[in-house]
Amino acid sequence: MSPLPEPISLNNHHRDTLLRIFQHPTSHNIEWPDVASLLGVVGTIEEQRDGKFQVRVGTEMQFLDRPKHKDIDVQLVVDLRRMLTSAGYLPVVGELRSKGAED
What we know:
Layout: H1 12-21, H2 32-42, E1 44-47, E2 53-57, E3 60-64, H3 74-86, H4 90-102
Antiparallel strand pairs: 1-2, 2-3
Helix pairs in contact: 1-2
């Protein structure tokens, strides 16, 4: 099991994007620039010559296409949930949700 990631490096914008990725029902208005920014903080994101993005989060690596519109689609949300869960971010999401409930 991978060590728990450090949520300290996430600013409010990144925390909001992370929560929206794990939101149920799935949010349909998560913008690609927000996701790319989050991925750059929790892992690495590099644009390849073919226009795809190589994303590494924890031990996971995946190639993603830039969405045609500003918002990502449901399949990309599912893929991001899997990657972030594998990297240990599900407990972080739970912590952020519980802190939000306290406010």
